[in-house]
Design the sequence.
Protein backbone atom coordinates (compact mmCIF):
# COMPACT_ATOMS: atom_id res chain seq x y z
CA UNK A 1 0.00 0.00 0.00
CA UNK A 2 1.00 3.60 -0.63
CA UNK A 3 -0.08 6.45 1.63
CA UNK A 4 0.02 9.35 -0.81
CA UNK A 5 -0.39 12.05 1.84
CA UNK A 6 0.89 11.74 5.40
CA UNK A 7 2.51 14.47 7.51
CA UNK A 8 4.83 12.09 9.32
CA UNK A 9 7.08 15.08 10.05
CA UNK A 10 4.35 16.81 12.10
CA UNK A 11 4.99 17.67 15.73
CA UNK A 12 2.21 15.27 16.75
CA UNK A 13 4.59 12.42 15.91
CA UNK A 14 7.74 13.77 17.58
CA UNK A 15 7.34 11.55 20.64
CA UNK A 16 6.78 8.22 18.83
CA UNK A 17 7.51 8.68 15.13
CA UNK A 18 9.62 5.52 14.81
CA UNK A 19 6.90 3.41 16.43
CA UNK A 20 4.20 4.93 14.22
CA UNK A 21 6.27 4.21 11.13
CA UNK A 22 7.04 0.66 12.27
CA UNK A 23 3.36 -0.05 12.91
CA UNK A 24 2.41 1.20 9.46
CA UNK A 25 5.13 -0.89 7.84
CA UNK A 26 3.98 -3.98 9.74
CA UNK A 27 0.43 -3.31 8.52
CA UNK A 28 1.58 -3.38 4.90
CA UNK A 29 2.15 0.30 4.13
CA UNK A 30 5.26 0.17 1.97
CA UNK A 31 5.52 3.81 0.85
CA UNK A 32 4.54 7.10 2.47
CA UNK A 33 4.57 10.49 0.74
CA UNK A 34 5.46 13.22 3.26
CA UNK A 35 4.53 16.71 2.00
CA UNK A 36 6.12 19.74 3.60
CA UNK A 37 4.03 22.82 4.40
CA UNK A 38 6.54 25.66 4.82
CA UNK A 39 10.17 26.40 4.02
CA UNK A 40 10.98 26.42 7.74
CA UNK A 41 10.05 22.73 7.84
CA UNK A 42 11.89 21.53 4.73
CA UNK A 43 14.95 20.33 6.64
CA UNK A 44 12.82 18.37 9.10
CA UNK A 45 10.84 16.79 6.27
CA UNK A 46 14.09 15.74 4.60
CA UNK A 47 15.46 14.30 7.85
CA UNK A 48 12.27 12.33 8.59
CA UNK A 49 12.19 10.87 5.11
CA UNK A 50 15.87 9.97 5.20
CA UNK A 51 15.53 8.09 8.49
CA UNK A 52 12.33 6.14 7.77
CA UNK A 53 12.37 3.51 5.06
CA UNK A 54 9.83 3.80 2.27
CA UNK A 55 9.19 7.50 2.88
CA UNK A 56 9.56 10.08 0.10
CA UNK A 57 9.36 13.86 0.29
CA UNK A 58 7.41 16.59 -1.42
CA UNK A 59 8.27 20.23 -0.86
CA UNK A 60 5.84 23.11 -1.01
CA UNK A 61 4.20 26.03 0.79
CA UNK A 62 0.74 25.16 2.10
CA UNK A 63 -1.99 27.80 1.63
CA UNK A 64 -2.54 27.92 5.39
CA UNK A 65 1.11 29.00 5.81
CA UNK A 66 1.32 31.71 3.17
CA UNK A 67 0.53 34.49 5.63
CA UNK A 68 3.77 33.77 7.49
CA UNK A 69 5.79 33.05 4.36
CA UNK A 70 8.33 35.55 3.12
CA UNK A 71 8.46 36.90 -0.40
CA UNK A 72 11.76 35.05 -0.86
CA UNK A 73 10.24 31.67 0.01
CA UNK A 74 9.42 30.77 -3.60
CA UNK A 75 13.09 31.22 -4.49
CA UNK A 76 14.06 29.03 -1.51
CA UNK A 77 11.61 26.38 -2.69
CA UNK A 78 13.12 26.51 -6.17
CA UNK A 79 16.56 25.80 -4.73
CA UNK A 80 15.22 22.81 -2.78
CA UNK A 81 13.48 21.40 -5.85
CA UNK A 82 16.66 21.72 -7.87
CA UNK A 83 18.84 20.00 -5.28
CA UNK A 84 16.51 17.43 -3.73
CA UNK A 85 14.39 16.40 -6.74
CA UNK A 86 11.38 15.35 -4.65
CA UNK A 87 8.47 13.26 -5.94
CA UNK A 88 6.19 16.31 -6.12
CA UNK A 89 5.67 19.97 -5.31
CA UNK A 90 3.35 20.07 -2.35
CA UNK A 91 1.39 20.61 -0.38
CA UNK A 92 0.17 23.60 -2.36
CA UNK A 93 -3.18 25.02 -3.38
CA UNK A 94 -5.96 27.24 -2.07
CA UNK A 95 -8.03 27.23 1.11
CA UNK A 96 -11.22 29.31 1.11
CA UNK A 97 -12.50 27.79 4.35
CA UNK A 98 -10.12 28.99 7.04
CA UNK A 99 -10.75 32.59 8.12
CA UNK A 100 -7.95 35.13 7.91
CA UNK A 101 -6.13 33.72 4.88
CA UNK A 102 -5.70 36.38 2.22
CA UNK A 103 -7.04 34.90 -1.07
CA UNK A 104 -4.80 37.14 -3.15
CA UNK A 105 -1.64 36.09 -1.30
CA UNK A 106 -2.69 32.45 -1.51
CA UNK A 107 -3.09 32.83 -5.26
CA UNK A 108 0.37 34.36 -5.65
CA UNK A 109 1.97 31.40 -3.90
CA UNK A 110 -0.21 28.82 -5.64
CA UNK A 111 0.50 30.10 -9.14
CA UNK A 112 4.16 30.64 -8.31
CA UNK A 113 4.45 27.01 -7.23
CA UNK A 114 2.61 25.76 -10.31
CA UNK A 115 5.23 27.59 -12.38
CA UNK A 116 7.99 25.87 -10.40
CA UNK A 117 6.32 22.49 -10.96
CA UNK A 118 6.33 23.22 -14.69
CA UNK A 119 9.97 24.33 -14.55
CA UNK A 120 11.08 21.15 -12.79
CA UNK A 121 8.58 18.84 -14.54
CA UNK A 122 7.11 17.66 -11.24
CA UNK A 123 3.54 16.70 -10.29
CA UNK A 124 1.75 18.62 -7.55
CA UNK A 125 -0.08 17.68 -4.36
CA UNK A 126 -3.08 19.97 -4.15
CA UNK A 127 -5.00 21.34 -1.17
CA UNK A 128 -8.42 22.31 -2.53
CA UNK A 129 -10.64 23.04 0.49
CA UNK A 130 -13.70 25.06 -0.58
CA UNK A 131 -11.66 26.19 -3.60
CA UNK A 132 -11.96 23.49 -6.25
CA UNK A 133 -13.02 25.77 -9.12
CA UNK A 134 -10.29 28.40 -8.54
CA UNK A 135 -7.69 25.62 -8.26
CA UNK A 136 -8.89 24.11 -11.53
CA UNK A 137 -8.93 27.49 -13.27
CA UNK A 138 -5.22 28.01 -12.60
CA UNK A 139 -4.40 24.41 -13.57
CA UNK A 140 -5.97 25.00 -16.97
CA UNK A 141 -3.90 28.16 -17.37
CA UNK A 142 -0.65 26.77 -15.98
CA UNK A 143 -0.59 23.13 -17.07
CA UNK A 144 1.56 20.78 -15.00
CA UNK A 145 2.33 17.10 -15.46
CA UNK A 146 -0.51 15.96 -13.22
CA UNK A 147 -0.66 15.24 -9.52
CA UNK A 148 -3.16 14.49 -6.77
CA UNK A 149 -6.17 16.47 -5.55
CA UNK A 150 -5.74 15.66 -1.88
CA UNK A 151 -8.79 14.99 0.32
CA UNK A 152 -11.12 15.46 -2.63
CA UNK A 153 -14.59 16.66 -1.68
CA UNK A 154 -15.92 18.23 -4.86
CA UNK A 155 -18.60 17.30 -7.36
CA UNK A 156 -18.48 14.57 -9.98
CA UNK A 157 -18.11 17.23 -12.66
CA UNK A 158 -15.13 18.73 -10.83
CA UNK A 159 -13.64 15.26 -10.36
CA UNK A 160 -13.91 14.66 -14.10
CA UNK A 161 -12.11 17.93 -14.78
CA UNK A 162 -9.20 16.91 -12.57
CA UNK A 163 -9.04 13.55 -14.32
CA UNK A 164 -8.94 15.25 -17.73
CA UNK A 165 -5.94 17.26 -16.52
CA UNK A 166 -4.04 14.09 -15.55
CA UNK A 167 -4.80 14.10 -11.83
CA UNK A 168 -5.71 11.38 -9.37
CA UNK A 169 -8.09 12.02 -6.47
CA UNK A 170 -7.11 11.29 -2.87
CA UNK A 171 -9.56 9.47 -0.59
CA UNK A 172 -8.99 8.79 3.08
CA UNK A 173 -10.62 9.15 6.47
CA UNK A 174 -13.54 11.33 5.38
CA UNK A 175 -14.78 8.46 3.21
CA UNK A 176 -15.25 6.25 6.27
CA UNK A 177 -18.09 8.29 7.79
CA UNK A 178 -21.60 7.06 7.00
CA UNK A 179 -22.80 10.67 6.74
CA UNK A 180 -20.25 11.59 4.07
CA UNK A 181 -22.65 10.65 1.31
CA UNK A 182 -21.09 12.69 -1.49
CA UNK A 183 -17.55 11.51 -0.82
CA UNK A 184 -18.68 7.90 -0.46
CA UNK A 185 -20.66 8.15 -3.67
CA UNK A 186 -17.63 9.43 -5.54
CA UNK A 187 -15.43 6.72 -4.04
CA UNK A 188 -17.92 4.11 -5.22
CA UNK A 189 -18.57 5.48 -8.72
CA UNK A 190 -15.41 7.15 -10.02
CA UNK A 191 -13.13 5.08 -12.22
CA UNK A 192 -10.86 3.09 -9.93
CA UNK A 193 -7.98 4.26 -12.12
CA UNK A 194 -8.56 7.81 -10.79
CA UNK A 195 -8.29 7.02 -7.07
CA UNK A 196 -5.35 6.97 -4.67
CA UNK A 197 -5.38 6.27 -0.93
CA UNK A 198 -4.18 8.64 1.78
CA UNK A 199 -4.44 9.21 5.51
CA UNK A 200 -3.42 12.89 5.90
CA UNK A 201 -2.17 11.75 9.31
CA UNK A 202 -2.25 13.13 11.93
CA UNK A 203 -5.36 14.86 10.52
CA UNK A 204 -8.70 13.61 9.06
CA UNK A 205 -9.00 10.58 11.36
CA UNK A 206 -11.30 7.80 10.13
CA UNK A 207 -14.61 7.24 11.89
CA UNK A 208 -13.35 4.48 14.19
CA UNK A 209 -10.74 6.74 15.83
CA UNK A 210 -13.42 9.01 17.32
CA UNK A 211 -11.46 12.17 16.39
CA UNK A 212 -8.21 10.80 17.82
CA UNK A 213 -4.81 11.14 16.21
CA UNK A 214 -4.65 9.58 12.77
CA UNK A 215 -1.63 7.49 11.70
CA UNK A 216 -0.45 5.89 8.44
CA UNK A 217 -1.20 2.52 10.00
CA UNK A 218 -4.91 3.20 9.41
CA UNK A 219 -4.44 2.90 5.64
CA UNK A 220 -5.35 -0.83 5.42
CA UNK A 221 -8.72 -0.18 7.07
CA UNK A 222 -9.29 2.80 4.77
CA UNK A 223 -8.56 0.51 1.82
CA UNK A 224 -11.09 -1.99 3.15
CA UNK A 225 -13.69 0.78 3.34
CA UNK A 226 -13.09 1.69 -0.30
CA UNK A 227 -13.30 -1.97 -1.30
CA UNK A 228 -16.64 -2.33 0.51
CA UNK A 229 -18.05 0.78 -1.15
CA UNK A 230 -17.06 -0.54 -4.58
CA UNK A 231 -17.94 -4.19 -3.95
CA UNK A 232 -14.43 -5.32 -4.83
CA UNK A 233 -11.83 -7.53 -3.14
CA UNK A 234 -9.55 -5.41 -0.98
CA UNK A 235 -6.48 -6.87 -2.71
CA UNK A 236 -7.75 -5.52 -6.03
CA UNK A 237 -8.30 -2.06 -4.56
CA UNK A 238 -4.84 -2.01 -2.97
CA UNK A 239 -3.15 -3.12 -6.18
CA UNK A 240 -5.01 -0.59 -8.33
CA UNK A 241 -4.55 2.41 -6.03
CA UNK A 242 -0.88 1.63 -5.59
CA UNK A 243 -0.42 1.43 -9.36
CA UNK A 244 -2.27 4.74 -9.70
CA UNK A 245 0.03 6.38 -7.15
CA UNK A 246 3.16 5.21 -8.94
CA UNK A 247 1.76 6.39 -12.27
CA UNK A 248 1.02 9.92 -11.09
CA UNK A 249 4.18 10.18 -8.94
CA UNK A 250 6.76 8.54 -11.22
CA UNK A 251 9.62 9.59 -8.93
CA UNK A 252 8.55 7.12 -6.29
Sequence:
Amino acid sequence: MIDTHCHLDAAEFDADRAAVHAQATAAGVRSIVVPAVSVDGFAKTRAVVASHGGCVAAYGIHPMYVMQAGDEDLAILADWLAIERPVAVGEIGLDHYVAGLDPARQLVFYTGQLKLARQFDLPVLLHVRRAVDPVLRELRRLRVCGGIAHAFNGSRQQADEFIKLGFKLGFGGAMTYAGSSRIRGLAADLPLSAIVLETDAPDIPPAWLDRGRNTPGELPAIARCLAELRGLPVAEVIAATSENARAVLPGM
Residues 223 and 238 are 7 Å apart (CA to CA). The two ends are 13 Å apart (CA to CA). The domain at 2-248 is CATH 3.20.20.140 (TIM Barrel).
